[in-house]
Write a structure and sequence with these properties.
Blueprint lengths: L3 H4 L1 E4 L5 H18 L2 E5 L6 E6 L1 H7 L1 H15 L7 E2 L3 H4 E6 L5 E4 L5 E6 L4 E2 L2 E4 L13 H11 L1 H7 L3 E3 L6 E4 L5 E4 L2 E3 L3 E9 L8 H9 L15 H5 L1
Antiparallel strand pairs: 1-11, 2-3, 3-5, 4-14, 5-14, 6-12, 7-11, 7-14, 8-13, 9-10, 9-12
The structure holds 2-oxoglutaric acid and fe (ii) ion.
The site of fe (ii) ion has 5 residues, from loops.
Length: 244
Amino acid sequence: MGDLQTEEYLLIEKFISEQKCESLLQDIYKYKERFGAKKISRNIKPIPLSYSVIDGLAVQSHLPQVQSLYERVNEFINQSTNQPLFPLASVQVGCNVNITEKGGTYRWHYDRNAVTALLYLNEVEGGEIEFYPNYRVTLPSGKFSPLQSWIDRVQQSPFIRYGFGQKVVVKPKPGLLLVMCGDKCLHSVRPVLGGGDRINIVMAYDVTNASYVVENQLNSYLYSSETVSASDPNYSPSRDTLKD
Ligand SMILES: O=C(O)CCC(=O)C(=O)O
Ligand SMILES: [Fe+2]
């Protein structure tokens, strides 16, 4: 097995079997039929954020199979890192199911947390994840400062990405697990072109007691349909959130 410190990211085929994927998909569809999923749509350029999410609170109370995978993947990751990682303190954010319909995409971003595991449950046309492993130039002063936002914006421009980045493209497949340093690895999802909804489980981990300056703003941006400031809080934390 690879080591996350030296490998930059890990890609594990058949982390779970096709039957297990089927069983998870059935649970997810049943949940969605009964309770629905929150549709998130933010018109960002060049790639909008357009998908539906079942958040960690719903996972914890209604999707025990998904919740136990969050724990199993945690154990797996801790075999390949020096520093032990934990589920996020925020249950809502820790483990999500993303459902991306035809035409849906996920904008360029970094995650707030250190390590993210993406478990794909099915295959669709399009919907590839694109990422630049360990691409981010991070300031020692922290991930959420205004200067860091500026660096992130510059690094996200196509010119800098094409010139300096080493892009990896991964096509979703049932049972495929991708583990990456989500806060260092710039990533986005290409449009889903057909073949049904793209469904994956997004599992977030971090060192113990990790806290995020952008927490509240980012949560309403990612998990609610309410109107938030036009800019992306991952990149531009407002003065208010910086005071926390
Ligand atoms: O669905 C994917 O492949 C990536 C999703 C993602 O980056 C996220 O939810 O933070
Ligand atoms: Fe992400």
